[in-house]
Amino acid sequence: MSLPVALSCGEPAGIGPEIAVRAWEALREDCPFFWIGDPRHLPLGAPVALIDSPEEAEAVSARAMPVLAHAFAAPTVPGTPDPDNATGVISAIERGVALVHRGEASAICTAPIHKKALIDGAGFAYPGHTEFLAALAGVERVVMMLAGEQLRTVPATIHIALSEVPAQLTPDLLRETIAITDAGLRSRFGIANPRIAVAGLNPHAGEGGKMGREELDWIGPLVAAMAAEGIGVFGPLPADTMFHPAARARYDAAVCMYHDQALIPIKTLEFDSGVNVTLGLPFVRTSPDHGTAFDIAGKGIASPASLIAALKLARDMAAR
Questions:
Q1: What is the mean pLDDT of residues 188-201?
Q2: Which of 101, 249, 294, 317 has its CA 20 to 30 A from that of 33?
């Protein structure tokens, strides 16, 4: 019997609860998982089987969504986050990570959180899921990858203002990002010889120093040095010509310099099916590549496609 994937509930006022049920409907016999959250937050009438431990999930999954009940302070109103539930959201993530650490779940998939509600209700001190999971794992450096069928991208800097990128983007940071991406492609995706393209920071990758010198001064030399060490990395490349079909065929992942440079192309190509993967953790973590979508929460129209892809990828990565 394979271990199930743990799915933390995320922000209960968002679309997380309803797409969890729809993901179970699609995957109940193909990819057993269990939901960690307050059953009161699930859509009325959802087929639910309360379980006491993850090992019970597979046996009940064919008839109902396995739920590991996790008490929250308050019920929820779709579209209206309640800061009183912030502690519950955080502790559900912590519980999922602990179950994976103990070998009771194969991986953790996290439903979207709402950072403002967590800050207001619990003083949440992290920019996002990725940084919080790194702290829980005791890992200093992790990498956020957005993965889909057509493209994988990695931002070297993540949740910071664009004005801060040049100062935060250091040779050490870029080297670590490339190295963790290379290791993750090998171990999590089963790619024996990964090909990694690196984007430039400036327009046209600096155009020979006319639009910025970072590419000439240190990005290009660093990429060349890592390639000489045996990593299949090349660049820096102009970001505006990296993402058409012929360019994408040349690499397995693109390392980008900042958040939007990485996320715009994959969300354009795979808005409903992209998956957020955290590389560098001692366990597998995935998440749907979208937010809480308060504007449509509770209306039954949210697409579960990204969550379905995230759960299936978590299963496959854990198996590797």
A1: 97
A2: 294
The fold of the 1-141+290-320 domain, in CATH, is Isopropylmalate Dehydrogenase (3.40.718)
- The string over 14-31, giving b where at least 16 C-beta atoms fall within 10 Å of a residue's C-beta and e elsewhere, is bbbbbbbbbbbeebbeeb
Known binder of ligand: residue 193? no
The answer on whether 204 is annotated among ligand-binding residues is: yes
* 101 is known to lie in a ligand binding site: no
Is 285 annotated as a binding-site member?
A: yes
> In 58-130, which ranges are E strands?
65-69, 107-110
pLDDT tens-digit series, residues 17-54 = 999 999 999 999 888 999 999 999 999 999 999 999 99
What is the C-alpha end-to-end distance of the chain, expressed in Å?
16
CATH 3.40.718.10 residue window(s) in the chain:
1-141+290-320, 150-269
Q: Does 70 show up as a binding residue in the annotation?
A: no
Overall fold of domain 150-269: Isopropylmalate Dehydrogenase (3.40.718)
Q: Is 85 annotated as a binding residue?
A: no
